[in-house]
Amino acid sequence: MTLLGYQIPNFTYPRVAPDRLFAVVRQQAVEAEGSGFDTVLVMDHFYQLAGLGRPEQEMIECYTLLSALAQHTSRVRLSALVTGNTYRHPSLLAKTVTALDVVSGGRAQLGIGAGWFELEHQSLGFEFGTFTDRFEKLEESLRIVLPMLRGEQSTLSGKWYQVQDAMNHPAPLGRIPVMIGGGGERKTLRLVAQYADESNLICGPAEIPRKLEVLAGHCANLGRDRSEITVSYQTSACIAPTHEQAVAEFEDYLSRQPQAQARRATTFVGSPDEVAEKYSRLRDTGIDGVTVNAPPNGHVEGRVALLGETLAPLFAR
After folding, report:
1. Helix axes 90-103, 131-149, angle to 10 degrees
2. CB atoms within 10 A of CB 298
3. What is the DSSP letter of 48?
4. Which among 307, 283, 271 is positioned nearest to 6, based on CA atoms?
5. DSSP-assigned letter for residue 16
6. 182, 229, 270, 288: which could form a disulfide with 188 (CB 3.0–4.6 Å)?
7. Average pLDDT for residues 226-232, to the nearest whole number?
């Protein structure tokens, strides 16, 4: 499971034309694998998010991208962080994730969530519905996808999805882990306790202990051992060899992407020693691991490697 994951959330880089875009993404994945990250993850979106840029900025379809990255890596697991359930019928999702597993030699991971980006739904024609609708769909989807990933036929006559003896051949090469992203205490963490191998929390650091208590409560109610679930925490970083370089690269990023000003409060910026100290405090909250993105400077050669070398000793298997 994910103890140290590198997420690539943005594909708009200074002075990088479209014909060089994949090379920059590939470089980040290769550096991540070589420096101690155990998982490489990309967002499952079609438009850029408001906290990272403008909707019209570059966004590559995640499973096509992950399959391409599989050909340039050999060890890291590959996952969406996280799949928007509303974008694919669950039987198609099961086939897609299985295809990723086959072409990667057994390295696929399913990261999934209920879906939330309304603009994408409205613009591209995906049904959005209510908050309750989306979580009902997510649970039905898990009831279809998980048997298909475990070598079983899947049948469900649900409110939102209907399948009859849905088959999945070839089967995955091994057991595909399932991560559910988010921090909702009533719905999301209950689904984690019932269906998932991993919880990827999105919340303020001060909220982590309460989220862990809530998850443990859901596990107790369902008769599940809480220790079976890995808990990772979503973070952002901007690391450089010196404090001054890190700050300069972060400020340059904000000047290029003013929509990302809110990231000032949530990005760990600094030298390796400074970043390691911040992540050490985060580890002490009780989480098992972290996922890290680096939109300010992940495209700069060597920065992802430096990040992995700094954090791997803190989150070693």
Report:
1. 50
2. 26
3. -
4. 307
5. -
6. 182
7. 96
Distance CA 111, CA 305 (A): 24
- What is the sign of the dihedral through the CA atoms of 48, 46, 302 and 263? positive
pLDDT digits (tens, 9 = 90+) for 10-66: 999 999 999 999 999 999 999 999 999 999 999 999 999 999 999 999 999 999 999
Both structure tokens of 262 = 């809110």
d(C-alpha 179, C-alpha 185), whole Å: 16
pLDDT of residue 72: 98
Residue ranges of domains in the chain, CATH in brackets: 4-314 (3.20.20.30)
Spatial separation of the C-alpha atoms in residues 68 and 199, rounded to whole Å? 26
Cα–Cα dist 162/90, whole Å:
10
CA dist 238 and 232 (Å) reads 19
The whole-angstrom separation of Cα 111 and Cα 113 is: 7
